[in-house]
């Protein structure tokens, strides 16, 4: 056994050395498993183990049906996004983005647009056929599903069991009796905000923050207090601590695992600090973990919820980014807010469709889910890398990028003065969707930033779209103060 371990590590080191020495270069295909086994006189399983280790070290990637390829290194240090500096604690502000955002989303969704707008994985990366088959089988065999009185029968026990099983790797698994199955992560977030706030209250949010969260605050008459957020390590806990001392905060909305749009990941010790701080101040945390399973590192990061000892964290998520956004299936692990959430869920939409609950339960209990997630994670990481390389190739000098640690979007900061709302309009005419940066802030920050969806396998279409965007951005840079242009 020890000899075996040594052999695969030796092979991983040998190949890793060739990559570091640029004998094998980014994009090069490694010899096939069979050939390596033959040449090195090793077993196939030893070679596979060596390649998996190189994959975990981030040096190679597996491409379905094609073999292992050398990965590109991350952008050099000076092209990475610098942390946003906020000199003073921001004030809570009313949010006003709904109107504009709804127009932008509708325009982005037109069929002919290159889909760099909404954060969605391509259908070809999702197990659609498998899910369709399950809908057929369950429809035929579970006749009672359509005549059950389901208005208040919220959770299918099989699904709850699978969700708890899936959380076993998170340090502290979810409790079955705190779960409320919902119609999406959007519904989960909305129910949680309804449960713990009233109009006029202040909610602490990351900056930048996912626009739908800001929309929800606007809809509920809540104020947003933007907390500085590091592009790699997430929300500044020091700033959050000061905010909780200086302001009355009703709740804190967090994306600890892969903030949308930054892709940042809060380190474990900071997650623990946040859980303790908010519990001590009795400020509920609403944690959005919709991207938690799309990690680029070897391990599934724990949510803040794993560090919660008093039921103060409501964990919200869905299967929209991993199985299909059309399922409209999510849940809240609501901690001490469970009873209140159940009432709100009844009044909002009753129980969640039991057929879909059972389909997802059957999928999660099969071995297919883990295999699918492994492939999807690799695809997202590869696509984010390909998008990053293309942006650096085609955008004006001075453009910087976030370095996502997971998820499927890329945050791009263009040189100051290039207004991404104007770029959005030019891109629209060129048939390219994107989301302008200022929609991720209640204070109108980030007007020179934009978010690109990386959910699609790379192709000449996307290369061309990014090239075109880069040229449009360069034109705006030359024109100067483009924010002044008449709309
Ligand atoms: C951070 C985040 N939360 C929630 C959602 C919405 O998820 P759902 O489709 O389940 O409503 C998205 C979708 O882009 C998202 O990025």
Helices and strands, in N-to-C order?
A: HHHEEEHHHEHEHEEHEHEEEHHHEEHEEH
CATH fold naming of the largest domain: Aspartate Aminotransferase, domain 2
How many domain units? 3
Number of helices: 15
Fraction of residues in helix: 40-55%
**CATH class group of the largest domain:** Alpha Beta
The low-confidence parts are 482-487
Q: Could you characterize what this model shows?
A:
- The chain has helices at residues 2-20, 33-40, 44-56, 98-108, 128-141, 157-166, 185-196, 211-219, 237-246, 268-281, 338-348, 354-365, 368-394, 420-429, 460-479, and strands at 60-63, 67-70, 93-94, 179-182, 202-207, 223-230, 234-235, 251-254, 285-288, 313-318, 330-333, 400-401, 409-413, 435-436, 449-453.
- With 487 residues, the chain is of the alpha/beta class.
- It has three domains: 2-70, Winged helix-like DNA-binding domain superfamily/Winged helix DNA-binding domain (Arc Repressor Mutant, subunit A); 77-87 and 94-124 and 370-484, Aspartate Aminotransferase, domain 1 (Alpha-Beta Complex); 126-367, Type I PLP-dependent aspartate aminotransferase-like (Major domain) (Aspartate Aminotransferase, domain 2, 3-Layer(aba) Sandwich), CATH 3.40.640.
- The strands form three sheets. Strands 3, 4, 5, 6, 7, 8, 9, 10 and 11 form a nine-stranded mixed sheet that branches. The chain has a four-stranded antiparallel sheet with strand order 12-13-15-14. A two-stranded antiparallel ribbon has the order 1-2.
- Mean pLDDT is 91; it is low at 482-487.
- Residues 119, 184-186, 210, 212, 255, 260, 288, 290, 318, 320, 325, 330 line the site of pyridoxal-5'-phosphate.
């Amino acid at each position: 056994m020890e000899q075996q371990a040594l052999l695969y590590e030796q092979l991983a080191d040998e190949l890793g050395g060739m990559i570091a020495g640029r004998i094998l270069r980014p994009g090069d295909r490694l010899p096939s498993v069979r050939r390596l086994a033959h040449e090195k006189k090793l077993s196939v399983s030893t070679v596979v183990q060596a390649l998996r280790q190189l994959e975990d070290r981030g040096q190679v990637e597996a491409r379905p049906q094609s073999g292992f390829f050398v990965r590109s290194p991350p952008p050099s240090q000076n092209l990475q996004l610098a942390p946003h500096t906020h000199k003073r604690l921001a004030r809570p502000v009313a949010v006003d983005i709904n109107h504009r955002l709804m127009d932008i989303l509708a325009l982005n969704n037109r069929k002919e647009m290159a889909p760099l707008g909404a954060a969605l994985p391509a259908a070809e990366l999702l197990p659609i056929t498998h899910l369709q088959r399950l809908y057929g089988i369950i429809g035929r065999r579970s006749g009672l599903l359509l005549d059950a009185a389901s208005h208040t029968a919220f959770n299918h026990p099989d699904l709850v069991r699978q969700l708890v099983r899936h959380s076993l790797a998170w340090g502290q698994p979810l409790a079955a009796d705190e779960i409320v199955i919902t119609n999406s992560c959007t519904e989960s977030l909305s129910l949680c905000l309804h449960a713990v706030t009233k109009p006029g209250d202040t909610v602490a949010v990351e900056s930048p923050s996912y626009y739908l969260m800001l929309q929800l605050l606007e809809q509920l008459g809540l104020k947003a207090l933007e907390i500085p957020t590091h592009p790699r390590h997430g929300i500044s806990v020091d700033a959050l601590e000061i905010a909780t001392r200086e302001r009355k905060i009703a709740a804190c909305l967090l994306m600890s695992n892969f903030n949308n749009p930054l892709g940042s990941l809060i380190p474990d010790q900071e997650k623990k600090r946040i859980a303790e701080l908010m519990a001590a101040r009795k400020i509920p945390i609403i944690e959005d973990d919709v991207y938690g399973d799309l990690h680029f590192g070897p391990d599934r990061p724990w949510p803040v919820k794993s560090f919660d000892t008093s039921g103060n964290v409501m964990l919200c998520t869905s299967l929209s980014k991993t199985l299909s956004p059309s399922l409209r299936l999510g849940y809240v692990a609501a901690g001490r807010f469970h009873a209140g959430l159940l009432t709100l869920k009844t009044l909002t939409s009753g129980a969640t469709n039991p057929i879909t609950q059972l389909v997802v339960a059957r999928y999660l209990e099969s071995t297919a889910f883990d295999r699918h997630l492994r492939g999807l994670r690799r695809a997202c990481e590869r696509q984010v890398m390909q998008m990053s390389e293309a942006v650096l190739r085609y955008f004006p000098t001075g453009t910087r990028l976030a370095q996502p640690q997971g998820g499927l979007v890329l945050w791009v900061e263009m040189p100051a003065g290039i207004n991404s709302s104007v770029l959005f309009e030019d891109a629209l005419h060129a048939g390219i969707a994107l989301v302008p940066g200022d929609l991720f802030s209640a204070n109108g920050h980030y007007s020179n930033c934009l978010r690109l969806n990386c959910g699609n396998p790379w192709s000449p279409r996307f290369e061309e779209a990014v090239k075109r965007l880069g040229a449009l951005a360069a034109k705006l840079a030359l024109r100067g103060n483009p924010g002044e242009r008449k709309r």
